[in-house]
Structures are given as structure tokens and as C-alpha cells.
Amino acid sequence: MDKYCIQTYGCQMNVHESEKIAGVLQSRGMTECDDVARADIIVLNTCCVRETAETKVYGHLGRIKSLKKRDAVLIVCGCMTQRPDVAQSLAKRCPFVDIVLGTFNQSLIGDYIDRFIHTGVKTVDVWRSEKDGELRDTAPARTSGINAWVNIMYGCNNFCTYCIVPYVRGRERCRPIDDIVADVDGLLAQGYKQITLLGQNVNSYAWHDKKFIDLLKLLESDKKYRLKFMTSHPKDISFELADLYACSKNLAHTLHLPVQSGSDRILQAMNRHYTRDEYFKKIDAFRAAVPDIGLSSDVMVGFPTETESDFLQTLDLVDRVRYNNLFMFIYSRRSGTPADEMPQLDYKTKQGRIDRLIKRQFEISKSIASECVGKTYEVLIAEKTGDKCYGKAQNDTAVTFDSVTAAVGDFVNVKITSAVNANLKGEAV
Ligand code: SAH
Ligand code: SF4
Ligand code: F3S
Prior knowledge:
By secondary structure, the chain is of the alpha/beta class. It folds into three domains: 3-125, Methylthiotransferase, N-terminal domain (Rossmann fold), CATH 3.40.50; 147-371, pyruvate-formate lyase- activating enzyme, CATH 3.80.30; 373-428, CATH 2.40.50.140. The chain has twelve helices and 21 strands. The chain binds S-adenosyl-L-homocysteine, iron/sulfur cluster and FE3-S4 cluster (F3S). Iron/sulfur cluster binds next to helix 5.
């Protein structure tokens, strides 16, 4: 039992949790292998935010069944198994799965593996909350190059009516502020050039009398690094944070502020607690504080009862904001959420709307990219193959350029020479 393979689905939270699982397995002397056919331990860290995410997991399980070594241990964990009945139906549909865990007890994965190897008994153990047992802090085996993820909180209290996350991740829990600061100091000392703070709604972070903005101030450093965070919620993000961007040495000039819809009626039905005008005011404040800020967002089409005129409001919002990057989704029914009980739209309407939205955003991205030609950006190199460097500008614009001398982790000034669709090429200056 010396090789493990982890397949991760879903968001950055899961990517980082897979790093923690890898940490546990490495502390037991195991090494990573990316081929399921050669692995002794196979872990699927799952997502259930949309139906497609779950379908993918079942599809991959079928493939793994025929590829894996006969005595390999197959483990399924993560958000999907926290849904009522999924753990049981997994055990029934996929009897070749050996261990099923949830989101709360993943740090105990080593114990579950031992038990299985020694007794041969399959385990299904999904906790309802972190209080169901004793947890251990485990050190992650980091895999994301120059960037290090740092959790500042877990869970979510917002209950947007479409969303499954609060049900599978539990209520909001914040980590002690001193622990976060110590983690970041340690990571900067190790040479990480970018830190990304993680939480479902980072703007509601609180530790005693300290708020998110106090945490960001404590993370200001003379060391050169980029500080990012996700995800922000438009109802909680403060104007004070815009002021901090204007004077911070470390905050990257990026903001991911998911809007979901441009229609006030739909925002209300989604339980989002802001209007489109309030959203515009916040965007304006951040653009005023940091004129080159790179904005990104999540948008959903086809939420129950969404009319053509609601959808046109979304298109109009996207036109007005001009996001640098937009993640676009078709609403997906999640059983147990309030939106699942509302009148649903047909597939064709939803598909037609997402196609129109994607087309519109493609034009916007192309036009933003063409405006970058001739400008010079400070690029942090994330990857290098041969002389080809790939990295991101301060405002998240992705850039490729050639350099013989520059190395991964360097900050290099790059002048943009061409834009093909949204892909920017440049040269070091
Ligand atoms: N806490 C974060 C991330 C939530 S999940 C946030 O609030 O933004 C990431 C994105 O998935 C959401 O922003 C939303 O756009 C999308 N999403 C969530 N539930 C969905 C559903 N049922 N159908 C389609 N998209 C969904
Ligand atoms: Fe889901 Fe809303 Fe919480 Fe984000 S803020 S995780 S969309 S319930
Ligand atoms: Fe993330 Fe998917 Fe869970 S988006 S929080 S892995 S449901």
C-alpha cells in the first residue's frame, strides 16, 4: 500500500481539502500517483453543487471499477456523500466502493483505511456536523505551485434558495485569527508568492471583535506577495474594504463578487438580500478605489420563474459591469432546497438563455483583451515549460511570454503584444 491517487471535483475548498487528505496519506509513507490503474488507494473527493457534478462522479466510478487493481482501496468522500441517502445509494449502486466518508470526518481517513485493511469491513460513516466526533488538524501536502490556500472559515449560513452547500458543509465556523496569521507567515517564509483565503462567504468572517478587514490588515507584509480571497457576498462586502484595496501593498487587484442574477425579483426569490442597484454601487466603489481591478462573477440562468425580461436584466447587468471573467451556470435542481419546490423552467428555455449569455460574455472578454495590447503588466510566473512562461497580471489577466532567465515565482514586467480571442501574449520588458 504505497501509492495513492486522488480525483477532485468541485471548488477550491475541495482542491484544498484534497491537499489535506494527501497530507494524511503522505504522513503514512505513501506517494502520489496520477494513474488509477497503479494506485493502491483511490480517493474521489466529490461535489454536488449541480446535478452534472454528481453524474460525473458516477461515470468516473464506473470507469475506475474496470481500471483499478483488484486489491486497491476505493474511497468516496466530500460534499456529495453528505446528501441524504447518497451514501446508501452509492453503496448499493457501486458495491465496489470500500469506504464512504463525508465533509466533516475526512481528516480521519487514515483510521478508516487501517480498519478496512485489518478487518475487511466496508465503512459508511457520514457525520451530520463536526460535533459528531473528535477531529484532528492535519497538515496539507500542497500541490498548487506558487499559490497556497488557507481556510479562514468553513460552512455557510446564507441558505440561498438554490444552493446545497449549507446542507452539506454545515453552519459557518471561523478559524481563530491568530492561527490564520501564523499559517500565512509560515507560508510566506517558505516562499509562497500568493495566498488565497478560502470561505463560502469571507466577508462575514468574525473572531471575537475582529472582522474580515482586520484580518486583511494583519496580513499586510513587506514581503512581496499577492493576497486573494474567495468568495465574497454582495450583501456583506463593505465599502471600507474598497478603501483598504486602495492603500494595500499585498491585495491583488481582483474581486470575485458573484451576482447570480440581474433581476431584483429573482434575487429576492434566491434569498440574496441585495438589489441590482446596491450591487452596482459596490462595484463602482471598488472600481473607483482600484481602477485596474479585474472583476469576476458567477451568474445563473433558468432559476425557477425567471422570465425573458428577468433574463434581459441579467444580460444588461453583464453588459454594464463588463466582467473580466464570468462563470455561467444553468440552474440545477437540488432536492431539499426551497427552489426545488418552485415552478421550474423547461430545458430548451434554459439552454437558449445560457447560449446567449455565453456569446455575450465572449464578446466582452475579447474586447477587454484587445484593450490590453500595448499595456505593461507585472506578471507572476506560475508555470514554465522550456522558455514558455505562463502567469497572471496583478488583476488576474492571464499572460504567456517567452523568457530564458525568468523562473516560476518571479514577478516580471510584460508588455502585451497580441490578443487572440481572450488569450494574451507578451514580451518581458
Ligand atoms: N459560496 C460561494 C460559492 C457557492 S457555489 C458563493 O456564494 O458564491 C459556486 C456557484 O455555483 C454559485 O455562485 C452559483 O452561481 C452556482 N450554483 C450554486 N448552486 C447552484 C445550482 N443549484 N444550480 C446552478 N448553479 C449553482
Ligand atoms: Fe451557497 Fe449562497 Fe452559501 Fe454561496 S452564500 S455557499 S451560494 S448558500
Ligand atoms: Fe464546493 Fe461543490 Fe462542495 S462547489 S463546497 S465541492 S458542493
